[in-house]
Design brief:
Length: 232
């Protein structure tokens, strides 16, 4: 996978480099300076992630709604920047170096944006529009609407990489869902973290059935909208 050089210089980890310096008085001072530079670098990197999030939110505001129908494709948007602890835990699970540089190079969802759309067709329209943006490169795409996860989850996930300016090389994960898909996913996320519950297999089956029922409602609502638009 092609990544931006400024984010992948793993040998330029000043703290890691400092660990090999002998513990003389001068060396201790050097380590302190290196670590201070590392903290400054971390602040700069966090600022870049925040800029990448803001840029994506501003871009999504420009999505062109269908003025004729009067329907708004995007209902609401939420976003977050993954905490350093969460990023390091992800690196640990993947058996990758637990360093700042590895976090920014290997954790592609450090910046996450969730876009909630009215109807399934809107999800695909927003997806197509995002993939056409010249300032971003599509790195990875997963279509869980056409091919739902075994547990019933539906949505579209995109990993985009900034191509220009200050955030060049920075990754942003976009999750696209309908209101109904997000309703299921939000409740399923809460329920699956409840500990020490019995009948886990039955619960999974019930959640899967709920996901299928909600997908059927999504389809019905889409059909109703199509009928309304055909009569206008």
């Amino acid at each position: 996978m092609r990544v931006h050089d400024g984010f992948c210089d793993r040998e330029a980890d000043p703290v890691a480099a400092g660990r090999g310096i002998p513990r003389s008085v001068g060396a201790v001072e050097t380590v302190k300076k290196v670590r201070e530079l590392s903290r400054i670098d971390l602040r700069c990197r966090v600022e870049i992630l925040e800029t990448a999030r803001t840029d994506m939110l501003e871009l999504l505001k420009k999505f062109p709604d269908d003025q004729r129908s009067g329907f708004h494709a995007v209902q609401y948007i939420c976003s977050r920047i993954k905490s350093p602890e969460s990023m390091m835990e992800k690196l640990k699970r993947k058996a990758l170096p637990e360093t700042l540089e590895a976090a920014l190079c290997e954790v592609h969802d450090a910046v996450g944006v969730r876009v909630i759309c009215s109807f399934a067709d809107d999800v695909f329209r927003v997806e197509k529009w995002l993939k056409s943006q010249e300032n971003y490169e599509l790195v990875k795409e997963k279509d869980y609407i056409s091919y739902p996860k075994p547990n019933g989850y539906r949505g579209i996930h995109l990993i985009l990489r900034g191509m220009n300016g200050k955030t060049a090389g920075t990754y942003v994960e976009i999750q696209l869902r309908t209101i109904a898909m997000d309703f299921w996913a939000s409740l399923e996320h809460q329920l699956k973290y409840k500990k020490e519950i019995g009948h886990a297999a039955m619960m999974s089956g019930e959640l899967k059935q709920c996901a299928d029922d909600i997908a059927s409602v999504d389809l019905s609502m889409q059909t109703i909208r199509d009928i309304i638009e055909a009569q206008e």
